Amino acid sequence: MSSTYEGIIASNGITMGNVYLFKKNEITVDSELISAENVEFEQQKLKKAMSDYKKELENRTFSTKEEEEITNAHKELISDPYLYDTITTKIVTELNNAQMALKSTIDEMVSTIELLDDEYLKERATDYKDIGEQILYKLKGIKPASLSNLPEDVIIVSKELTPSDTSTMDKTKVLGFATDLGAKTSHTSIIAQTMGIPAIVGMSNISEKVNDGDFVIIDANVGNVIVSPTEEEKEEYRSLIKEQKEEKDRLEKIKNKVAKTIDGCEKEVSANIGNLEDLDIAINSGCDGVGLFRTEFLYMENSHFPTEEEQFEVYKQAALKLDGKPLIIRTLDIGGDKNLKYFDFPKEDNPFLGFRAIRFCLKKPGIFRTQLKAILRASAFGKVRIMFPMVINVSEIIESKKIIEDIKKELDDANISYDKNIEVGIMVETPSSVVMADQFIKYVDFFSIGTNDLTQYLLAVDRGNENISYLYSNYNPAVLRAIKHIIKVSHDAGKWTGMCGSFASDTKATKLLLGLGLDEFSGAAGKISKVKDTILNSNYEEEKEFSDSLLNIEDVEEIEKIVFKHNK
Ligand code: PEP
Ligand code: MG
């Protein structure tokens, strides 16, 4: 009989194959204190272990950008004098041997980081654990278990997979992952998504439930691992895998088509990106442009506010890669849950309603100007548009546009080219911007609806709070009516509205949004072809009638039911 175990979907898809159970050598710390005369010797041992690991990192080769970034982050962490100093202080003052000093330093760092309420920083705890483990192996002279020598085509099952594990893994032979630990945003999930293989994480104890060589099915569309499936289950999944492949091949063929409805309405299907690597993936996926460049990642991944030159290079590259297709650059949307290592944000009770996004930029005009100037200069190389986040007042648009006008004069004086007709828009993601849409539209060229925030603020439901996640629905009638209103106001003014919140890549919502009159859909690269496919097979007039009828329904669950049925 088969057994089914559940976990968190890290990367979608279905696969089946034999388990490669990855068990690491148990590594214990020798816990004998040292005598004063051995202090120097232990320090030398530590220094050598750290420098050996650093050399190993320097010699690594990469198959993904992700791995390169993680290795660079490890190099940075291991080169930080604070780490070495803290460990050696324990050797000198507490007469810990190098292994003990290393372990307690790493444990302290990890528990401090894990207390932080920040998913991104929590991931750094995994990096510290990984580094600690690798140095410990060196101190003990043990070679760590590795995934570099895999038998043909396997499914890796493990307690967890650290960056060191995945960076040495032979990726050509991995069909999927299932791990006891991990979350949606953890390293293992990101690697699986990058590799495009199905993966399930956070499975509690799957590594104890399977044996090496067991046959398993990973259904990462529903989040299940089926161990020792029956013949019927195997057959059922074989045909699902076949269907999945056929659907993938079919969508691959239409990805570069223009998304035009049967009755002739053309829509743009664009991508959201955070960096140039995302853009490469988006272009490969058939995007008609970029509807949201989240520039905050440029700032978050840096050790300083990026200079005008540094930003210009990135925006210019993006504009060139898009070769005339639109690139909407959102100005810095920092604050809330997104912080910077090099800037002390004030402590706030409600950071999501606090000093963030356009508010931050207008209070820091130097930082804002630097970014706007870089964007304007890049506009000479493509179809660049500027977009402001979290707008609540007309004055914010007026003030920001004044800065743009000042910079344009500066560029004219210096004979530097830029797009004189560059379009300027705002994200509609606050209740105020919905209510005031008819006024705001006078000052901008376009709207882009940020449903992630709009739904949270309109419904007063925190988008990240699991306790109330049942209330967070983009299908709530208040959200749908707001979307309809925003689009109508922009069309009445002869302008257009896009959407860059994740509702735009909810493929069950494509027909509904089409019917509401949305002009541009911008979201996950992986969903572009499916959104295009739906548009290509829809009739705008029919979907308009359908969407209008939905706006009279009061209950969110009923709306969801009708929409899902409408897609079948
Ligand atoms: C949004 O709020 O919908 C949006 C796209 O912005 P972010 O998710 O970056 O807040
Ligand atoms: Mg937002």
Q: Specify the overall morphology.
A: globular
Q: Can you list the strand order of the major beta sheet?
A: 1-8-7-3-4-5-6-2
Largest sheet: 8 strands, mixed
Decide which structural class fits the backbone. Answer: alpha/beta
What is the number of beta strands? 17
Q: Kindly report the average pLDDT value.
A: 92
Helical content (DSSP H or I, runs of 4+): 40-55%
The DSSP helix count reads 23
User: Which stretches are low in confidence, meaning pLDDT under 50 for 5 or more residues running?
Assistant: none
The portion of residues forming beta strands comes to 5-15%
Head-to-tail CA distance between termini = 33 Å
Question: What does it look like?
Answer:
This protein has 568 residues and is an alpha/beta fold. The protein contains 23 helices and 17 strands. The protein has helices at 39-59, 65-79, 81-94, 98-115, 119-140, 163-167, 187-195, 206-209, 231-254, 276-284, 296-300, 308-322, 357-363, 365-378, 394-413, 431-435, 437-440, 451-459, 477-492, 510-516, 528-536, 540-550, 556-567, and strands at residues 3-6, 8-11, 14-22, 154-158, 174-179, 199-201, 215-219, 224-227, 259-260, 266-273, 290-294, 326-330, 383-388, 423-428, 446-449, 496-499, 520-523. Strands 1-8-7-3-4-5-6-2 form an 8-stranded mixed sheet. An 8-stranded parallel barrel has the order 10-11-12-13-14-15-16-17, surrounded by 6 helices. Strand 4 (154-158), helix 6 (163-167) and strand 5 (174-179) form a beta-alpha-beta unit. Helix 3 crosses helix 4. The protein is globular. 40% of the residues are buried. The model has no long low-confidence stretch (mean pLDDT 92). Phosphoenolpyruvate binds at residues 292, 294, 333, 429, 450-453, 500-501.
